[in-house]
User: Fold this.
Amino acid sequence: MSDKTYPTTWRRPPQIVADRRWRIALQLGILAYLVLAMGSVEVDWQRVSVGLERGQRFIMGFLQPDFTSRWNDISRGLVESLTMTLTSTVVGVLVSVPIGIGAARNLAPAWIYYICRSIIAVSRALQEVIIAIFLVAMFGFGPFAGFLTLSFATIGFLAKLLADDIEEIDEAQAEAIRATGASWWQLVNYAVQPQVMPRLIGLSLYRLDINFRESAVIGIVGAGGIGATLNTAIDRYEYDSAGAILLIIIGIVMIAEYGSSYLRKFLQ
Assistant:
């Protein structure tokens, strides 16, 4: 039997602002800000009506997708996206592991910790589209810029979560390994790796899914992949081809989602 006692009556949780007048003032201030913010939005209703008409044509094209007329371009862009997704995820995971270990306060010395945390902060601070624009300007149009963009984004994503997981491991297991006189590498291998590996595999699969969706976004700015093909189809008002591309993207994302969910259950 547990010795814990549970409350029998409900108690209101503590409030951040105790004074009722200040709470009302804050609520009125937030409401006034929202009203002013909405009033500052300049809406061109004529353009909205034109956009709705274009949106209707796009929806009709989405409901009648054309997979054949531009299949060569679609297949080429799809292969580029899948290649960028897989290679960037693998490279990103390989680079993220040492950075994530270095960014864990309970494993790394202070100077390595701050360096690795700075790398993570820079990677997380920049959106993929911004990185893609910068790399396209450096290396030109094509999938190489997309590969570098997704790899860089993967590092910030995985290294951050891996470092947090390492800092939250069961210290009792780590202390038991240290008590045997194990080296630092043996500590990582026998105390840290068994606790974080299932989580790392699940996060890697999740990032694989994200990278494919992001490859469609960064392709719009010239970083290759299916996004470039989609952007070309929209620019040419080929909404039936654009609908086909979107259906392919949705289908692949759904397959990846169900596959990764099954694999995560299998690993756990």
